[in-house]
Amino acid sequence: MTTTFHLVRHAAHDRVGTILCGRMPGVHLGALGKAQAERLADRFANENVAAIHTSPLERAVETSEPIAARLGQSLEVSEDIAEIDFGAWSGTSFEALAQDPRWAAWNNARSNSRPPYGETMLEAQARIVGALEQLRHRYSDRTVILVSHSDVIKAALLYHLGLPVDAYGRFDIEPASISTLAVGDWGSKVLRLNEVVAA
Description:
Shape: globular
Helix content: 25-40%
Number of domains: 1
Number of helices: 6
Largest sheet: 6 strands, mixed
Structural class: alpha/beta
Oligomer: single chain
CATH architecture: 3-Layer(aba) Sandwich
CATH topology: Rossmann fold
Low-confidence stretches: none
Radius of gyration: 16 Å
C-alpha cells in the first residue's frame, strides 16, 4: 500500500528573496504568483487526487485554491505543514539577517541551532513527517497534494532521502514547484524533485 504525495511550494509573492516572511500575516501572491498557481491547476487537472491539504498561511491557501477549484475538491488546512516558526526573525530583510551571527549559525548547522524564539528545523521536520504518516494511512493507495513552504518541504524530502537536515542546501525548492514522494510500509522513494511548470 503506497500513498503518493505531491509536495507543492506556494507560488511567488512580492517579498520572495528579500524578506524572511516566516509566519507573518498578510503575505499574498503577486501577479506572477497568481499566474503560477493557475499553471499548477492546469498541471494537476487530470490527476486523480484524494485530498488537498494546505498550510494556513495566505500565500499557500491562495496557491491551493485554483488547484482545488480545477479538481472540484475542498481544501483542508493543516498547521502541521505550516512554515517554520522563525520567531523574532519573521519579517526581517535578508540584508539585515546577514549581519546577525545567529543567522549564519542557523544556515551552517540546522541540526543544532534555533531561530530566536522560534523552532528548530528538526521540530519542523517532525511536524511534516508526522503529517505524512497520518495521511498515508488515511489515503492508502491514493494521491494527496500538500501545499507548503520551501524549508518544510526540504525537511520532508531530506528525511525520506536519509539525509541530515544540514544537507538542506544541496537542492532547491522553487516557488510553485512540485516534488513527488511515494511512501508505504516498504519505505519511501522521491519520484520527482523541484518540478517547475513552464509558462
